[in-house]
Amino acid sequence: MLNEYKIIRLPKQNIFLAFVKLVFIAIALQLCILYIPSLVGFAKETTKYEQENDFRIRVIANSNTTQDQHEKEQLVKDLKPYFKQVVASAGAGTVDNEQILSLKQEIEAEIKENYPQLDTQVVIGDNLFPPKRQNAVLYPQNMYQSIVVKIGDARGDNWWCSVFPSVCEPDKEEQKEEEEEQVTFFIWEWIKGFFE
């Protein structure tokens, strides 16, 4: 009742090649299992080292009212050359105390000269930063060596910049450009083409 089928045997060369492929795949999997965790651990150590040596600059608005946010944005715009100066002068990957103190004095002088109406406080040292997601990177809430410029009660949204690695919060203009991009679907546009 059952049909007889011919059994085709592979030549010994093909069996040898299949065995070699199997051994190669097994070795590759073993190496992946052994080395991927160590690479992930190395990446985490590098990120932790960068975060420990990170120097940040933060400007906190008095409140979230339009006027206070505008004052904060104007202050950030005027202080950016000082921030860029720190980034440019710190080619070795660290900021020394002399640079930090001179930056604090320059910021205080700039604020007194151009913003005498603002009640500001410039704080230097380890300050608490809220968590922040920038593209695919999450910066955890932590104490970072930083300069914080507090305007008034400092209860509003903040602007921050990290010197190492050089990451600054994107400007509002860049965010608007991303929002204005309209998403279209090929199939929907194709169907609409029939009715035009």
Features:
196 residues; alpha+beta; two-stranded antiparallel ribbon; 20% strand; 5-stranded mixed sheet
Question: Which secondary structure elements does this structure contain, and how are they paired or packed?
Answer:
Blueprint: H1 12-52, E1 55-60, H2 66-89, H3 97-114, E2 120-129, E3 132-134, E4 137-139, E5 142-151, E6 158-162, E7 167-168, H4 172-180, H5 186-195
Parallel strand pairs: 1-5
Antiparallel strand pairs: 1-6, 2-5, 3-4, 6-7
Helix pairs in contact: 2-3
Could you explain how this protein is built, in words?
The chain has 196 residues and is of the alpha+beta class. It has two domains: 10-52; 55-178, no CATH class. Helix content is 52%, strand content 20%. The chain contains five helices and seven strands. The protein has helices at residues 12-52, 66-89, 97-114, 172-180, 186-195, and strands spanning 55-60, 120-129, 132-134, 137-139, 142-151, 158-162, 167-168. It has a five-stranded mixed sheet. Helix 2 (66-89) runs antiparallel to helix 3. 14% of the residues are buried.
